[in-house]
Amino acid sequence: QVQLVESGGGLVPPGGSVRLSCVAAGRTFGSRTMAWFRQAPGKEREFVAALSWNGGSSAYGDAVKGRFHISRVNADDIVVRLQMNSLTPEDTALYFCAAHKSAAWSGFNQLTSYTAWGQGTQVTVSS
């Protein structure tokens, strides 16, 4: 059963922007820290951004700081968005939405802190 559903990926030119969205059931994930990770071919999955359940805490991976922005809307369905600007070919990857195992902020950038994952949406940055 897929609990997190990502959308918004595609082919983007260098310097361009794209916004990813992730929809999750609010009843299940409304009080969880949510995050985005990415995985490029031949590389390990890496932390991109995280946002606490109430939006009070946020964090970004070093590679995306100042260019990406994470946000969320808490309602019957949780919508977590990742605005990606000034894209480079190095941003090409499969992007995953993830839900933390709890409302805690601890381990926000650790894969093992997240127990629910989407299937990923591909972002390709190329001219």
Secondary structure layout:
Elements: E1 4-7, E2 10-12, E3 18-25, H1 26-29, E4 34-39, E5 46-51, E6 58-60, E7 68-73, E8 77-84, E9 93-100, E10 114-117, E11 121-125
Parallel strand pairs: 2-11
Antiparallel strand pairs: 1-3, 3-8, 4-5, 4-9, 5-6, 7-8, 9-10, 9-11
Query: How far apart, in Å, are the first and last alpha carbons?
Result: 36 Å
**Largest sheet: number of strands, sense, barrel closure:** 7 strands, mixed
Strand content range: over 45%
Mean pLDDT: 94
Q: Total number of helical segments?
A: 1
Strand tally is: 11
**How are helices and strands ordered from N to C?**
EEEHEEEEEEEE
Radius of gyration: 13 Å
Secondary structure class reads mainly beta
Q: Give helix % range.
A: under 10%
Low-confidence stretches: none
Please tell me what the overall shape is.
Answer: globular
